[in-house]
Specification:
It is a single chain. It is built from 1 helix and 19 strands. Strand 1 and strand 2 form a beta hairpin. Helix content is 7%, strand content 26%. The protein has a domain of 155 residues: Alpha-Beta Horseshoe (Leucine-rich repeat, LRR (right-handed beta-alpha superhelix)), CATH 3.80.10. By secondary structure, it is mainly β. The protein has a 10-stranded mixed sheet, with no helix packed on it.
């Protein structure tokens, strides 16, 4: 049974390889059927089930759309395709990776909207898709990623309001939405559900309204970056309650 399942992982990865441009022949020279998939570059297998549990292909100059076959790696815990030349939409088949804990797709040319099916990945702890060209709104379904600790979507072209559901993911430690086109105001109760939040980066957007006084309830906050927006009104005194705060950025707003 194990051999057959590992063969299915091998088939999925060979199909993945065949649909990519690999100018440095990194995969072409290493991913061959004559070698155990667990010895392929960038591939890690689990000890117990002997299935592919991690795929790390960062900085390999790979180019193409992300093939859907990765969705067949049913034991995958970590997927890192960052710093390549992937483009196009995320295949919906990635939503089948229910064991996934780490998804890193930063520094590519991925586009389209961030898909709502990401909310199906309940075990993901780290979602990093920075420096792409994602557009549209951040989906409300991310609230279903209730183990999420790091949400990093900086340097994209996201618009609309920051969904209120984001502020209900109590496991979050870092939110980085720096340099998008997000608008609207922050919810008045934004820190009611953030016992672990340490870093909040919302600078270089188009956010407006008052900075909620509830910001003072983010007790573990160490970095607060709200600069280069359209916030107005008085800086809330409750920021003084943030005893662990090390860095505060409020410049280039309309604050009093």
């Amino acid at each position: 049974m194990t051999a057959r399942n590992l063969n299915s992982d091998q088939f999925a990865l060979l199909e993945f390889k065949d649909r990519l441009a690999d100018p440095q022949n990194v995969l072409a020279n290493n991913w061959t059927a004559s070698t155990s998939v667990c010895r392929w570059i960038g591939v890690s297998c689990g000890i117990i089930h002997e299935r592919v549990i991690a795929l790390n292909l960062t900085s390999m100059n790979l180019r193409g759309t992300i093939p859907p076959y990765l969705g067949n790696l049913s034991f995958l815990l970590s997927l890192d395709l960052s710093r390549n030349n992937f483009y196009g939409l995320l295949p919906k088949e990635l939503g089948q990776l229910h064991r996934l804990k780490i998804l890193q797709l930063s520094f590519n040319s991925l586009n389209g909207e961030i898909p709502s099916w990401l909310g199906n990945l309940h075990r993901v702890q780290r979602l990093q898709m920075t420096n792409n060209t994602f557009t549209g709104r951040i989906p409300q379904t991310l609230v279903n990623m209730f183990n999420l600790e790091i949400l990093n979507l900086r340097f994209n072209q996201l618009s609309g309001q920051v969904p209120s559901s984001i502020f209900k993911i109590s496991s979050l430690k870092i939110i980085n939405l720096f340099s998008n086109s997000l608008s609207g105001s922050l919810p008045n109760d934004m820190c009611q559900h953030f016992p672990k939040l340490e870093e909040l980066y919302l600078s270089r957007n188009e956010l407006s309204g008052n900075i909620p006084s509830s910001i003072g309830k983010c007790n573990n906050l160490q970095i607060l970056a709200l600069s280069s927006n359209q916030f107005m009104g008085i800086i809330p005194k409750s920021i003084g309650n943030l005893t662990r705060l090390k860095e505060l950025y409020l410049g280039v707003n309309n604050l009093e």
